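Model it.
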Amino acid sequence: MIWIDAPQVSYGNEIVELAKEFFPTETISAMGNETDPSEEDLILKSTWSAEGSESFSFLTTLRKGPVLLGERKNVEAPDRENGEGETSFLFEKRRRREMKNGLKGSVYDLLSSFTGKHPRWGILTGIRPVKIVHELLDRGCSREEVRQTLRETYRLHPSRVDLMMKTAEVQRPLIRKGGPRTVSVYIHIPFCSSRCFYCSFPSDLFGRISDKIGDYLDCLHREMSALSDEFQRLGISVDTVYIGGGTPTVLAYADLERLLCMTESCFRSRFPLSEYTVEAGRPDSLDPQKLRLLKNYGVTRISINPQSMNQETLDRVGRNHTTEDVARTFQQARETGFDCINMDVILGLPGETPRHMEHTMEAIAALGPENITVHTLAVKRASALKESFHQYDPSRRGLAEEMSAVCRRWTEHMDMVPYYLYRQKYMLDHLENVGYTVPGKECRYNIDIMEEKRSIWAFGAGASSKLYHPEEDRLERVANVKNLEDYISRIGEMIERKRKALGTGI
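Modeled.
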């Protein structure tokens, strides 16, 4: 057992997550008032203090009982200059981050020295690392200064510095700081035909809840219509719609048409959309009729996600389709006129090696999608895979990183560039998820949700709206209930939550 003792800070859990990168198989927890460590437990303690008036001292120690195993003290001087256009609120926010980075830096340095490990993402434990690059550039830092900060302050490996910088370079001209008057819309369809063994997302099996689809669409329409009316009344415009899940196209043809018709009447007919995505996901949920339906309703981008192009892997993880289904559905989508198609793959699926990833990427390159999203397997507690797959198996250590290198080589071969990335807990080899694109085919919604510089209004069970307040660079979350029955029975409450967030609630 490893205990984290960080008595002066409110972000002790971030230090817990950082320590897990060095000790992935250990139980690690923050100390509380009632904690009573045993003599065999390790205690990692982090504190800070002022060093005169110009600098701070960050001290981290590692003990086992009374024995001191290691110690690290860093002295740093925080930046006392306001950035260009930076308010006092944002300046104080940045100062708090500098303190956090100093403390986490001393933890990283001590644990790196103690274990001999150097995690490629340094001290970063957050989901959206590229935001740091944009914030530094917005403050007027040069690109070389940003690189230096990523290497020295955040302890990033050069490969991750390059990935972040390349991603930010693609995003810079595309980040839309529209403020409260221009927003994106997300519509959630939480149904799948079967549950993949690695999946931890809240979704219902379509066959089990098919009798509730009509009620769900009724409530979804009420929610979308009410907010669309408010948007128009307040002069708010929508320019991006994303229908995700689950697998939206698992809906029967008539229900899918109803969903698209609802979206048409509430958003597409009222606002000038620049992008309209439907997460088709499983190729076995599509056919030529559904593809034509999507095209006729103005959908501009779809996903057809193989995850792997190795049939034995698909069978192993519970995907009810074949590799031939993937290729056939992709060609049908092309014949229907779709010129922006995304394909997802997953690094580190059970039984796979870099050789399997080579085969997957070669098969996908032959199809020629405009977007490829490379996910790293993250084994969550809610997934069926948790009980049968040891994510920290020493024999597989480093395999996901090798598979990631295969994907980078193939995306470069396809003239693709990284345009968004994010991280999750429990990812193999502590990696990341990266979206690659042919230049000019970037999914704006994916950039919006990762860089968090505009409001995204979300509809449906389990959907969470994120409302951006630019003056404070802050997000306000307005969540719907996750349970399907609760959403249906409490739809009036879900609508009222959103109206209040708009300032129009009773």
